[in-house]
Design a protein that fits this description.
The chain has 231 residues and is mainly β. Strands 1, 2, 3, 4, 6, 7, 10 and 11 form an 8-stranded mixed sheet that branches. The protein has a 4-stranded mixed sheet with strand order 13-20-19-16, with no helix packed on it. A hairpin with a 7-residue loop joins β8 and β9. The N terminus is likely disordered.
Length: 231
């Protein structure tokens, strides 16, 4: 058996997907170990981010003296999206824009490889593609917090609820403030954090914003405004 690694310049390898091919007598055997960009989450993905298929993907040929003769990518449905290249194993695929609210539209990317000795490998990647906006989480602050007054240097707990679509999970959470140097977060990358202003000379409003990104490509930001009372 011969293993071929396609040496293209690609991003770091992510998850693996085992595909198969037909060898002697039509038996199905492992043939392709797909590798993807780091952080790729399959089968679900948004319609606004490309799926990057690594050129480090491994192809096993049953005959050590055989070679790859051709590489072809196709898709089903035929107009589901666009490949960066349809004749290299390492490529990227971007979905067509989906109607608002579309969830889990089935798409299959199909890699077909022929060999110099007449062999053929057909390896699918099955995807569930969604309108990106439909994957966004919902962030809500407790009632009464927005517009409330807090004494300078007095701590306040920021504990928003974040609702994710089924099967999704947070990828990053980031807190920011405006003005930028108004105060300090105790946990600027956690869902719940404390915040307190520094010493101020005059009453000032501050806008505290949380940004959430998710594994499926969802993004949400939500802000709360506090009135800081100078003492």
């Amino acid at each position: 058996m011969m293993r071929i690694v396609l040496g293209l310049t690609v991003v770091a390898a992510g998850m693996l997907l085992l595909a198969g091919c037909h060898g002697d007598g039509g038996a199905l055997r492992p043939a392709v170990n797909f590798k993807f960009a780091e952080g790729t989450t399959l089968p679900s993905m948004p319609d606004n981010l490309p799926l990057v298929i690594s050129g480090d993907t491994e192809v096993d040929l049953p005959d050590a003296e055989d070679n790859i003769a051709s590489v072809t990518w196709t898709q089903s449905p035929a107009n589901a999206g666009t490949f960066a290249s349809t004749h290299t194993i390492g490529t990227a695929w971007l979905s067509a824009d989906l109607p608002a609210g579309t969830r889990n539209q089935a798409v299959t990317l199909i890699l077909t490889i022929t060999t110099a000795k007449g062999g053929k490998i057909v390896a699918p990647i099955n995807l569930l593609v969604s309108d990106a906006a439909s994957l966004n989480p919902v962030v809500a602050f407790p009632a009464g917090l927005d517009g409330s007054t807090v004494n300078e240097q007095a701590g306040v707990l920021l504990a928003p609820t974040i609702t994710y679509v089924p099967g999704d999970r947070p990828l990053s959470i980031t807190w920011t403030q405006a003005p930028a140097n108004m105060g300090t977060f105790t946990a600027p990358n956690d869902q719940n954090t404390g915040w307190a202003s520094g010493d101020i000379a005059v009453d000032t409003d501050v806008i505290l914003t949380v940004k959430v990104t998710t594994a499926l490509g969802g993004v949400a930001t939500q802000s709360v405004t506090l009135h800081i009372d100078a003492q």
